[in-house]
UniProtKB/TrEMBL annotation:
Lineage: Bacteria, Candidatus Aerophobota
Keyword Membrane in record: yes
Pfam families associated with the record: Phosphonate-bd, TPR_19
Entry keywords, A to Z: Membrane, TPR repeat, Transmembrane, Transmembrane helix
Protein name: Uncharacterized protein
Keyword hit for Cell membrane: no
Amino acid sequence: MNYKALRWKKWGKILVLIAISIISLYFVKTYYANHLRIEGEKYARGQNFEKAIESFKRAIYLNPYLSDAYLALARTYIKLNRPSSAVDELLKASRFKPEDEKILNLLKKAYQIELTKSSPTLKIGIRPQVRPLTTIKLAQPLLSYFSRNLNQKISLTIIPEYISTVTFLTEGRGNIAIIEPQELMKIKDRPEIIPLGLISFYKRSIHQRIIILTREKFVQTVKDLKGRKIAFGEKGSLTGYILPRILLLRHGINPDEDLREVYFIKSQEEILTKVMEGKVDAGVLNERVFRYLSSVEQLSEKVHIVAYSIEVPANILVVRKDLSPKLIQRIKDLLIDYTRAFPDKLKFSPFSGDIFWEYTDFGTSEAESNGKKTYTVVFAEF
């Protein structure tokens, strides 16, 4: 008798029974979770909201991926005029269904109700590096967090390119703004504006660097870009044009003479689209933006990075001095707390001491150093 075969047969039966039990348990839990959701909706229709909430929470406990239970629970919280609780539940649901229209629409409604409950309005301005709607999506959780903890309405202004972010503040259009590094020098002699720290809505770092990427197989180094078409960001931007220009010059490519065509494009997503569609041979992107877009769509197999710039600070959060010192400190504390609680959504590092110093030597080519263009970039110590 083959005892080994019998033993394997016995264990095989046991494993099959275990698998069947696990699958059965899963389906039972899924079925019962959905039953509890339906039960909760009946309670909600009968205005028995406490029972409804209890049923929805039990359903979510049994099946944490049951988005309909989160939606039903959020709707119940909204009926009870508890929009902050609704936001919390919808943010949980959005983790595994980030593009679900029902979740996003109800989240928008909950945010709007939440904002109407608080006062006065704190005005925040941002110049987007990606499309405005993407910027709003990235910023909304933080704005909701501010609104709840400051008990103030929050308004977000997407600042167009023809208005300086600093002007947005100095003219009193806003109380808080996120500015780019090259704008920091503009506020050095503006006592009414206080820089609070470096800030980033992207996961990796409060510093940033620029990448040049392409989908062309024959472009492996910066020198291979000679005679080709390149898409830059905005011409006056440190990250959109100045840093990549210097990067090209360091590798012996003069953008004014050695490129076939040069395009200046506002949106990072549009630059990437032009690269993907082959309308340009290479594009300049902020690495943090590229990593974020790669998390939404798999890009690593479609494009490759040719070069990286040096690192510079990311965006800077500044506030108007006429906000109360207590409120300014509270904003800083909330940003630190939010960074600790949600490190995948925000990076914030407060400044300490004197933050202004100038750095002009990028190790650029001799022609650039002697030549015609000198760039002064302000960095920040923290």
